[in-house]
Amino acid sequence: MGSEKFPAPVADLCDANASLILTGELRILEPVFQPYGQCRSFSGRVVTMRVLEHNAGLRALLETPGEGRVLVLDGGGSKRCALIGGTLAEVARRSGWAGAVVNGCVRDVDDVNGCAIGVRALASNPRKPGKSGATEMHVDVDVGGAVVRDGEWLYADSDGIVVCDREIYG
Q1: Each residue of 113-138: b (16+ CB within 10 Å) or e?
Q2: Which of 13, 67, 84, 160: CA 20 to 30 A from 7?
Q3: Are strands 99-106 and 70-74 parallel, antiparallel or unpaired?
Q4: Structural domain includes residue 20
Q5: Residues making up the binding site for Mg(2+)
Q6: Binding-site annotation: residue ranges
Q7: Could you tell me the residue range of the domain that residue 44 belongs to?
Q8: Is residue 3, in this structure, part of any structural domain at all?
Q9: pLDDT, tens digit, for every residue of 50-89?
Q10: What is the spatial distance between Cα 95 and Cα 61, in angstroms, rounded to a whole number?
Q11: Is residue 23 situated within a structural domain?
Q12: Can you tell me which residues bind Mg(2+) (predicted)?
């Protein structure tokens, strides 16, 4: 499920699935992310990746068929450099990714905003990332005050971002 088949507004998803919020199965990320890209609403299965101030392996991942998935990129909340820019946003779009949530920064904001993909990030920073470092794939990440697990479902729109262990509807 990508942005073209967004199930319902995030607020409606929360209302219709309030019991899942109480059990912690549906988690609401803190409202710290800024919207980038042309798709304000996007959703899909999560692929997680953890890096710190580098994006080693990110291009290779985004070149794989996205199949409407959403990348959750945990950069540790660092704002010292960007992790995704216009080139990688376009690579992700061409490969069929629905979007990305970046616990860090983006750059090339005008290029990212011109791309038909959804991106959420903490801020922008013109500094490019390093190209080497430890990269962890398919691990639990703590993003926006919530644990996000590989394979979960993420839903984002102008009201916020939620994740759930299953696909949900409003």
Answers
A1: eebebbbbbbebbeeebeeeeebeee
A2: 84
A3: parallel
A4: no
A5: 108
A6: 85-88, 107-108
A7: 29-164
A8: no
A9: 999 999 999 999 999 999 999 999 999 999 999 999 999 9
A10: 10
A11: no
A12: 108
Q: Binding site for substrate: what residues are annotated?
A: 85-88, 107
Residue 57: left if φ>0, alpha if ψ -120 to 50, beta else—which one?
Answer: left
Total tally of structural domains belonging to the chain: 1
DSSP per residue, the chain: --GGG--S-HHHHHHHTHHHHHHTSEEEPPS-PEEESS-SSEEEEEEEEE-SSB-TTHHHHHTS--TT-EEEEE-TT--SSEEE-HHHHHHHHHHT--EEEEEEEE--HHHHHTSSSEEEEEEE-SSPPBS-S--EES--EEETTEEE-TT-EEEEETTEEEEESS----
This prediction's pTM: 0.95
Is a pLDDT exceeding 60 seen at residue 114? yes
At 92, which amino acid appears? A
5 inside domain = no
